[in-house]
Amino acid sequence: FRSKLPNVKTTIFTTVGNLARKHGALDLSQGFPNFDADPLLIELVAQAMKKGHNQYAPMQGYYGLREAITNKIQKLHQRMYDPENEITITVGATQAIFTAITAFVHPGDEVIVLKPAYDCYEPAIELSGGIPVLLQLNNKDFKVDWNAFRSIISPKTRMVIINTPHNPSGAIFSREDMLQLEEILRPTNIILVSDEVYEHIVFDGQEHESASRFDNLASRSFVCASFGKTFHVTGWKMGYCVAPAPLMKEFLKTHQFAVFSVDHPVQRALAEYLRNERNYLGLGGFYQQKRDFFLNRLSSSKFKFTPSHGTYFQLLDFSEVSSESDEALAERLIIDHKLACIPISSFNLDHQDHQLLRFCFAKTEETLESATNILNKL
Ligand code: PMP
Ligand code: GLN
């Protein structure tokens, strides 16, 4: 056969995860918590199964869950999405993003992606025959240069993908950033895919500026979210996206033949759990404590860092620890020191190596303590 993705290798998360397991390393690589979800949420799934919600959910998702999402977005961002035709429940944010790209990108269309970028965007664009147009962010504060962004928009630009809070840097878009983006996109009919899976993990009193807050962004956006990230259940692969009705109608044409519908009892449980805002509003504070615990313990190490503004990732600059490539050091850390993290060069344009490693701090204090003990000895 002729590969449709000749240059794509196995994702870094699988490669590093496998190596970490093989060497029994402490795993701060792939982004998932090493503690369990609220027992109440798990009990709600069991109850939904016992009540017999074990057959297909409606194609767009269980209505009660869509209603709970409408209420949440209205409370947080003052925008009303109609649960009838503007919300779809998906297999994680990954399927929402994949489906949005598949449904709208035609062969030859350009799609703008800011690098470093989470690795699921570009292959999806290429499978649709689209052309990823990549803009590298600076490796200090990862702020977007909006003039540079404006200069790569062309008549062929079909879509822009943004991610705030940003994986892997932990940077977040300010209100000013969103207004700039809105102004640049205003005269175009470009579709925005806003990957907001870390929407509730924002630190130091800052706010998450969702695309749904801005009229001229919301009217062209798929805002994508993940219950896995928000409720510590990444293994459930549950997410959703919201978009104005005409966009969602087109999205559903693809969604219905990709998955038709997603896990029903879990949707029932999430609907009930989401109704209590205490179940997600404290998440930023919860993870900020972990970030601070991790960084305080590294204050006299040789690593340099700017504290993450959001997500549960922290980048560490290792330029004073080693002159190796990020991939070589990450491999040596696993094999010799039994600690796994993600080298981020593979997320950069042309695999640029800025000597940065990404650590996931969604871990117990015990794990973070052991990890920092290792890092402090380097
Ligand atoms: N986008 C980003 C930026 C992510 O870090 C992740 C990681 N899980 C996803 C999307 C995918 O989310 P999900 O697990 O809900 O598919
Ligand atoms: N989003 C998670 C991360 O960045 C991983 C998800 C995956 O393995 N695909 O670590």
TrEMBL record:
Record-linked Gene3D superfamilies: Aspartate Aminotransferase, domain 1, Type I PLP-dependent aspartate aminotransferase-like (Major domain)
Cofactor(s) needed: pyridoxal 5'-phosphate
Annotated GO MF terms: kynurenine-oxoglutarate transaminase activity; pyridoxal phosphate binding
Keywords, alphabetical: Aminotransferase, Pyridoxal phosphate, Transferase
Keyword Iron found: no
GO cellular component, one term: cytoplasm
A Pfam family that the UniProt record links to this protein: Aminotran_1_2
Transferase as UniProt keyword: yes
InterPro entries per the UniProt record, alphabetical: Aminotransferase_I/II_large, Kynurenine-oxoglutarate_AT, PyrdxlP-dep_Trfase, PyrdxlP-dep_Trfase_major, PyrdxlP-dep_Trfase_small
Family: Belongs to the class-I pyridoxal-phosphate-dependent aminotransferase family.
Protein name, as recorded: Aminotransferase class I/II-fold pyridoxal phosphate-dependent enzyme
Organism field: Pelagihabitans pacificus
